[in-house]
Specification:
By secondary structure, the chain is α/β, with parallel strands linked by helices. It has two domains: 225 residues, Alanine racemase (TIM Barrel); 125 residues, Lyase, Ornithine Decarboxylase, Chain A, domain 1, CATH 2.40.37. The strands form three sheets. It has an eight-stranded parallel beta barrel. Strands 10-13-16-15-14-17 form a six-stranded antiparallel beta barrel. It has a two-stranded antiparallel ribbon with strand order 11-12. Helix 6 runs parallel beside helix 7, helix 7 crosses helix 8 and helix 10 crosses helix 11.
Amino acid sequence: MPRPILATISLPSLKHNLATVIDRLDREGAAAGRARPFVWAVIKANAYGHGVDNAITGFAQADGLAMLDLDEAVRCRQAGWSKPILLLEGFFQPGDIAVIDRYGLTTALHSQAQLDMLEKAAPDSPIDALVKLNTGMNRLGFQPGQYRAAYRQALALSQRGILGSLGKMTHFARADDDPGVTRTQLRVFDDATRDLPGKVSVCNSAATLTPGLWAGLPDQAEHWVRPGICLYGASPFANDPAASFGLRPGMTLSAEIISVRDIDAGDGVGYGHVFTASGPTTIGVVSCGYADGYPRHAPTGTPITVGGVRTRLLGRVSMDMLVADLTHVPGPHVGMPVVLWGEGGPSVDDVALACGTIGYELVCAVAPRVPRQVVSG
């Protein structure tokens, strides 16, 4: 039989999470006397490790999809997705423009080099675009002092039929932990984009879930939010669990106990004996390791569920195995089910917190060798 490890992707959970976000936006919009924004469901990095094809199905009610990879965008079109698709980093070379044109994609524009490539382009149809402003993230985007000139160049390209509808976008650096920084970024955005025509897109997961943030923006004719990790059932906030927003895990990583043994006080476990038993301890070897995408740096105490009982990881994670404390797990035995994170176990955010990282990294890192099972109903 195959090695007992499995990543289960729940399409009902993906659908539920999107519906939860939309419902939240609807209620905020009603309270503010305005329509909710349109929703780009972000599916970059192979839908945060959940699979692009699964995301297309799970997020069918989204108004659009957003991603980085041009090949993934083409896959979405070939799979039948007819609504907008946004390339969050835009294009990288002139040849990409023809693909964007052929498949009717929307591109981010964040550099003069991209505008220069468009000056020489001759698409069959105008290409929709969002011109990105750097408001303090300091990754991609035109500087505030350069932005209006870049936008005017984009408007000129639109008049020539190279670009189609235009919009303005930015990205928040600290929407998850510092509202003051976000307010500063919003002021920069408002100052740089004032009176420029076109749609607006500023909110990522944390900003989308922050009460009053998007509804406090100027009432644009067309506003788009870009939720990402929250759609997969993880939280963008360190102190607010996903369950507090009504979100459900999109991925469950499970395995089995493949060996059980009793050790005595003073016995070490695993490489380096970074855990040493202080008394009689029952341990179980789990069929999951860092080659499966589980974090090697997960310390003793990282939560894990065995046979429905929450317990802890012991010692150092190996390439193909890790060890769980079964001392207080009733009737430990080979074949006992283990949940590393997800439905029936610790949340991916709980595991990430113990490891000093974020849930995004864990779900994206699950290795290709781990079999996938898709639950559709």
